[in-house]
Design brief:
A six-stranded parallel beta sheet has the order 3-2-1-7-8-9, with helices on both faces. It has 229 residues and is of the alpha/beta class. The radius of gyration is 18 Å and the shape is globular. The chain is built from nine helices and nine strands. Strand 2, helix 7 and strand 3 form a beta-alpha-beta unit. It binds 2'-O-acetyl adenosine-5-diphosphoribose. 2'-O-acetyl adenosine-5-diphosphoribose binds next to helix 1. The site of 2'-O-acetyl adenosine-5-diphosphoribose (OAD) has 25 residues, from helix 1.
């Protein structure tokens, strides 16, 4: 029995990272057009770097919560097939909890990508204007390794193959407003089980067969215990 788990900002909310579209969320504080598009980076790179520098720095002050830990436990203990964790989150809380079979479809705050050679490299600190690419040495050519609006999400071929072969699809803490992730539930085999974990009804709730209406820190450990039983 193969599992695909999709996570969104809601799974990290109880760790202290703001979601995007909830009341007071990130897109209520800054306009996404100003910080999350290639055009914004071309027009004002310092502003865009500053936005992601602050979010990268924030990762030092937060820790994984019981939902992240439960998914890592699921990967460790699941013996009846494959488990793939797909996250839209750019934070590193899944890996810090111990998840290894993990794809960051929207990139990672802790990586920087070189506009000259295309390589992405581990990056812990601010990206400063003169910083050199660890791979090719070019200076001043680094951008955050995050997917902006208008860009292609990462790892799509691997994700689509896993979805087509899954028996259980679980979506946790995502509003279902950003594609292609919002459409994943419609691409799983007709007989597959689909479970949405979210305290709120979302745009894609009708496409799921089962709903767990509650915070991820409670609902995910409960669901993982059921799956492993
Ligand atoms: P959103 O902010 O759109 O949605 C967060 C979801 O989490 C909402 O449906 C909330 O109801 C739910 N939620 C809040 N607290 C929760 C909790 N404690 N437990 C479980 N769920 C909770 O975030 P995403 O759906 O992740 O993309 O947004 C998708 C993408 O839009 C992001 O990856 C980002 C953003 O623009 C890029 O930056 C490319």
């Amino acid at each position: 029995m193969n599992l695909v788990i999709l996570t969104g900002a809601g799974i990290s909310a109880e760790s202290g990272l703001a979601t995007f579209r909830d009341l007071g969320g990130i897109w209520a504080q800054v306009r996404l057009e100003d910080v999350a598009t290639p055009e914004a980076f071309a027009a004002d790179p310092a502003r865009v770097q500053g936005f992601y520098d602050a979010r990268r720095a924030q990762l030092r002050r937060v820790a994984p919560n019981p939902a992240h830990h439960a998914l890592a436990q699921l990967e460790r203990e699941w013996t009846r097939g494959d488990v793939l964790l797909v996250t839209q989150n750019v934070d590193d809380l899944h890996e810090r909890a111990g998840s290894r079979r993990l794809l960051h479809m929207h990139g990672e705050l802790k990586r920087a990508r070189c506009l000259s050679c295309g390589a992405d490299s581990r990056w812990e600190d601010d990206i400063r204007p003169a910083d050199a690419c660890p791979a090719c040495g070019a200076a001043g050519r680094l951008r955050p390794h995050v997917v902006w609006f208008g860009e292609m999400p990462l790892h799509m071929a691997e994700i689509e193959a896993a979805l087509a072969a899954c028996d259980v699809f679980v979506s946790i803490g995502t509003s279902g407003q950003v594609w292609p992730a919002a459409g994943f539930v419609r691409t799983i085999p007709p007989a597959a089980r689909s479970i949405e974990v979210n305290p709120m009804t979302t745009e894609v709730s009708p496409a799921f067969r089962e709903h767990r209406r509650g915070p991820a820190s409670l609902e995910v450990p409960r669901l993982v215990a059921e799956l492993l039983a």
